[in-house]
Design a protein that fits this description.
alpha+beta
Amino acid sequence: MGRVDVQVNKASLPHTAISNPEEGWVSLPHLIEHLVWGFIALDGEIIEDAGKASVMIAVGTYLGREDC
């Protein structure tokens, strides 16, 4: 635990919490849920169990995705 967290008893936190240096504690399942709902609100689509894919980028610009 970093200097900011010296008074936090790590054992008292949920097992889903992790510490990010300079940012503090975060619960990954809650963060992912929050990000997914924001993505869906912007008309994004989550496709579960679709297999592995990679993002194609050229000169810092997103070109699409390709299935691996």
